[in-house]
From TrEMBL, chain A:
The keyword Cell membrane does not apply. It comes from the Bacteria. Its cofactor is [2Fe-2S] cluster. Keywords: 2Fe-2S, Electron transport, FAD, Flavoprotein, Iron, Iron-sulfur, Metal-binding, Transport. Coiled coil: none annotated. It comes from Geomonas propionica. This is FAD/NAD(P)-binding protein. Pfam families: DHODB_Fe-S_bind (PF10418), NAD_binding_1 (PF00175). Gene3D superfamilies: Dihydroorotate dehydrogenase, electron transfer subunit (2.10.240.10), Nucleotide-binding domain of ferredoxin-NADP reductase (FNR) module (3.40.50.80), Translation factors (2.40.30.10). The keyword RNA-binding does not apply.
UniProtKB/TrEMBL annotation, chain B:
The keyword Iron applies. It comes from Geomonas propionica. InterPro entries: 4Fe4S_Fe-S-bd, 4Fe4S_Fe_S_CS, Helical_ferredxn. Keywords: Iron, Iron-sulfur, Metal-binding. Residues 219-251, 299-327 form the 4Fe-4S ferredoxin-type domain. The keyword Glycoprotein does not apply. This is 4Fe-4S dicluster domain-containing protein.
Amino acid sequence: MCKSDNIYLPNLATIEAIVDETPDVRTLRLVFQDEQVRENFSFRAGQFAEYSSFGFGESTFCIASAPTRKGYIECCFRSVGRVTESLRRLEVGDTVGVRGPYGNSFPIEEFFGKSLVFIAGGIALPPLRTVIWNCLDLRDKFKDITIVYGARSEADLVYKHELKEWQERGDVRLVKCVDPGGAGPDFDGKVGFVPTVLEEAAPSAENTIALVCGPPIMIKFTLPVLERLGFTDDNIYTTLENRMKCGVGKCGRCNVGNVYVCKDGPVFTARQVKAMSQEF
Amino acid sequence: MPQIITEQNLRSLIDLLVKEAKLVVGPKLSGSVVLYEPLTAGSDLTLDALPRRSSKELFFPICEDILSYKRENGAMKVADVDRSKFPETVLIGPPPCDAGSPAILDAVMSWDYKDEFYLERRRKSTIVGIACTKGDDACFCRAVGLAPDAEAGSDLFLTPLKDGSYSCKAVTEKGEALVAAHLNLFAEGAGAEPVPFVDQAVEKLDLVKIKKWLEEHFEDPLWEKIADICVGCGACAFICPACHCFDINDEGSTDDGVRRKHWDACGFSKFTNHASGHNPRDVQNKRYRNRIMHKFKYYDDKFGKTLCTGCGRCIRACPVGIDIADILAQINRG
């Protein structure tokens, strides 16, 4: 990446495309400006980066595109603060900074030969979407792939075009849902909270890995469901999305007890999460 | 045979170092208070009071540029900060509770990812620590395993003698080099009796026992009892020699500006606030618990060191009287 030993120096990237996923969630497709960086940048599914909007600062998002898709990266964010609102004002052709990739990743190779169940809520689909496409691009390495994804309302479902694509593929089982009251007249998914819908969908736990990402309240109610379905804590993975600044284990913000989410995570098994100080 | 330097020669040493174009920093009256500030002459050195803020800011400034950006002909350019221009620096006069802090912070600044802003300043600095003969009722360095005569972190260590001179011990090669380059200011000899070190009425803490207690009492009524009164002002973190939390922000326009790293505090209510509005440390006692846990458990878990030098500044500064030494003593008594 950067030749400098300044760990805070970002690479520059151009916004190649913008997709509005929901009224306040946006995807940016970014292409590194430096040819060498463009060719050599590599990451693993689950890693994150610090994205900067010059004049405002940096925000932490996962790399939402798949490592199997070369030549660009994507991030997906909800515009809620100073930096994300400024990122939202940028247009195609504008420049952003990208530092990373940081953190650990999902051990995809260890999942070869197994079935996968992805469970995501709201804007927590992007951290799993990188894994989903990574695995779909290596489809023959895995058995059944199930995706349970829910949001508050139909409008809050992100990656709508990709949900359609997954729904139409014969080799993926997509169960999408919205919270009660969130469905429009033509909604073709289920109505209910993610943990309940997951329990009804009842994916088999046999030789299966569950990957869960969502707001803390969803995780809290999803883990017991997975347990009832027969998943062990070693076969459940999640990625924590704590507030970060430096991304490199120094600024003191993302720790859960003595675990630095930026360095020790963000990907953890349910067993690791349960061993942490309960400070989420 | 130990080396001796008279007070006058110590001040001459500062004069010489300034002439050598080194940045010399030491306790100095700045406005109405003593702070670690650049010394322009030996006469600036003020050893009567512990500076209000610690000397960590010499290596880890309150606020520093980490890059600059500028749009030129429509294209954004980012420029690194030229760290080779950081000056050769001599820090003169920190007591062990300040001199010892870089030796603690080196670990977090250099594990895996290396913060070259901090590390380059460390490489270019020589620390001349002075044994502490002053201290007050808030001091508790002995309780956390340091001492008024602890050499840890110093390159050259001075011990005040009753005749006003200092005995000198070169602790590192940097300290030896400093003496060797100014040998005419130092004299051989045993010197006078040392001034008695500050006497602290503190109980020695069993840091292993305290860490074990912390491990077992993440949830404990103590946290609410001691920390619900915390107003979250962050003063304790800003004046601490060992706190190292920081934030990163841009200053300038979207076309031209700098990115800065600046001190932050885990006591601030928004410190861990997620974009969603969820906050893992949503109430003040959880934030104070993190402060204690970080200093006496987490940092030790990661780096095998305690993140506290017992300088007592947080006790003196706390507007609501939170006394970390007393809290530790309570835990220590079990």
